[in-house]
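At this stage, I put together one protein's amino acid sequence and its backbone structure tokens, which the following lines show:
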Amino acid sequence: MTRDEILEAAAQVFRRKGFHGASMQDIAEAVHLQKASLYHHVSSKQEILLALLDRALDLLFECLEPLTRSPAPAPEKLRQMILTYLRTLTDEIDLAAVLLLEHRSLEPELRNRHIPKRDRFEQLWREVLEQGKTEGVFVVADVPLTARAILGILNWTITWYRSDGAFSVQQIGEMYADLLLNGLLKRTGGQE
């Protein structure tokens, strides 16, 4: 049994039962270990939660940071970030659920270790919004608020998305990108 296998199983258990509803016994059973044996690999549920949050953010950095560093214009970067982020969330749904729904369960000391990494992730989105403002293509009154609004829309998707639903994650991402980049108002002068 590896630590990675334990973390993967813990993410599934946390997604299914919630952090507070899950026990170390549940995690041990998921990996076919005795509870005492589980403690040879991890010291607590809090340690597991922090490891899962770190793993999720590391994966997201790996997927999104190269997009922010590309020479593409800001609207294209933002579109690709939206598509990549949604695809990653839905491909790694257990990990995403832990990141987005269970982070508040961290004890204060561990939360203080997590927040700077989370803020660095949000900063990726802010940088692209700032680039768009500088390029004169985005009208953004408040960059941090706009970044949080975009992430809020994307993050909530994991609560209702179904792979057998009416739209693929790619289609949903394209619709979100169109909404965020073009808005709701009908264009005048024949453009729609």
User: Anything to note?
Assistant: The two ends are 56 Å apart (CA to CA). Residues 49-182 form a domain with the Tetracycline Repressor; domain 2 fold (CATH 1.10.357.10).
